[in-house]
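re: the backbone from monday

yeah here it is again, tokenized this time
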């Protein structure tokens, strides 16, 4: 029975997980934009209906969803920059792990203060 050639089995390191997270966040952002365009288009049809729909967004559940949206946008943006570096910088593929750690650090540094401030408005007033 022939054995598998060396180096062809992908072992799911940071490259695979960033690929999965990039796709998931991209799909989430796409659906947000779709809903955003549709609800904004309501203002041309009926300003009253638009105001009613926007009014339903002012609750803690949507506030938590906004946290997820901002987290997804931040990750997707910085991971996209990482992907550009991996693709177009000669040392990018060798430094993929360091770049992924950099994405994580930048994401935490920007996301945590946003979460604290946003949730204080959502739940505190």
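seq for it, each position gets an aa:
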């Amino acid at each position: 029975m022939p054995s598998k050639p060396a180096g062809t089995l992908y072992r799911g390191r940071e490259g695979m997980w960033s690929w999965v997270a990039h796709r998931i966040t991209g799909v989430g952002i796409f659906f947000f934009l779709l809903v955003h365009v549709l609800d904004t288009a309501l203002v041309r049809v009926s300003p009253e209906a638009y105001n009613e729909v926007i009014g339903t967004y002012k609750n803690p559940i949507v506030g938590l969803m906004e946290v997820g949206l901002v987290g997804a946008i931040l990750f997707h943006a910085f991971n996209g920059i990482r992907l550009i570096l991996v693709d177009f910088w000669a040392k990018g593929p060798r430094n993929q792990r360091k770049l992924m750690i950099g994405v994580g650090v930048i994401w935490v540094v920007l996301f945590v203060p946003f979460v604290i401030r946003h949730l204080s408005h959502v739940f505190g007033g």
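The chain has a mean pLDDT of 91. The first helix runs from residue 14 to 45.
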